[in-house]
Amino acid sequence: MSERLRLTAPLPSLDAWVEAFARAEIPVLAETAEAIEYMRAMEDDVDAHGLAQLIESDPLMTLKVLARANELKRGRSAGLMADPETVTAALVLMGITPFFRDFGRQATLEEALADHEEALLGLSRVMQRAERSSRYALGFAAHRADPDAAIIHSAALLHDFAEMLLWVHAPDLALKIAELQEQDRHLRSAIAQRQLLGIELADLEQALMKRWHLPDLLTRITNDKHARDPQVRCVHLAVRLARHTARGWDDAAVPDDLHDIAELLNLSPEHTLRLLHDFD
Fold first, then answer.
1. Under 8 Å CB-to-CB from 163, ≥6 apart: which residues?
2. Does residue 40 sit in helix, strand or coil?
3. What pLDDT score was predicted for residue 77?
């Protein structure tokens, strides 16, 4: 049973963080919740592709659907089915009517953080960054003619979902991390997280993906520790660029990003920059 969670102090271990976040309710964007209700009223006209397009605009709804589909797969003849690695595949596995049955009216982020406007703003920035990351990653994968482009898109969209959940479930702690990094622009996220949470969010994210039995390919592509893998590199560089350009293209780290992306795509830096602006 999902429950509301509001942490004000760090938990004692990674396992404790996983347990708390795995049990907690995951709210979604209000516009996602409203659109699902609109589609529910016309269920007979809804297909998996159209519903997937709606869900994929919301990282946390994407997470919920993939987790539910993989839970269902484990309860069936698991060895006979491929892992549902995209939202469309998840919806095909679930079926439209069972989707609407399993996902009733959704709790919203706006309701969950109604008393914490700063946290809602911080969360909005992370979600906007995730959307840009997913566009870049899809563009890189398409340029490389990667057959797993749709999964790479999902991996980039979900890459920072633990940070999103921190803003939802522990907004004061998320705000303190943001303030630390605002005071010191050179402070790495992982160091700030260890300092204030006792864990790194990347480790929490990987542990939650395993707990929810998300597909191995999706879990691997989301893991920055496999940095030499070209698919991981697509996601990692997309996330890095979206982070560095969140306030504009004049960040000091952007030239390095451009160099590395040009190398990945086998293009000149000038051509790469034109391509990135097209993706944007």
1. 126, 174, 201
2. helix
3. 54
* pLDDT in the model for residue 185: 79
Show the tokens assigned to 113: 């953080």
SS3 168: helix
Biggest CA–CA distance in the chain, Å, is 53
Helices and strands in the chain, H and E counts = 17, 0
pTM: 0.93
Tell me which H or E stretch contains 111. helix 109-112
Please classify residue 193 by burial: count the beta carbons closer than 10 Å to its beta carbon, then call 0-12 exposed, 13-18 middle and 19+ buried: buried
CA nearest neighbour of 245 among 135, 145, 168, 155: 135
Task: Decide: 215 and 90 in contact? Cβ < 8 Å.
Answer: no
Quick one: 64 exposed, middle or buried, by C-beta within 10 A (0-12, 13-18, 19+)? Answer: buried
At residue 119, what are phi and psi to the nearest 5 degrees?
-70, -40
Q: Model confidence over 184-222: pLDDT tens digits?
A: 878 889 999 999 999 999 999 999 999 999 988 899 999
Residue carrying the six token digits 């560089």? 237
What does the buried/exposed string (b/e) look like for 131-149 if buried means 16 or more CB atoms within 10 Å of the residue's CB?
ebbbbbbbbbbebbebebb
Q: Kindly give, in sequence order, each residue whose CB lies less than 8 Å from that of residue 146, ignoring residues fewer than 6 positions away.
A: 152, 230, 231, 234
Which tens digit of pLDDT belongs to each residue from 91-126? 999 999 999 999 999 999 999 999 999 999 999 999
Tokens of 66: 């993939």
Give the C-alpha separation, 223 to 17, whole Å. Answer: 18
Residues of the chain with pLDDT under 50: 1
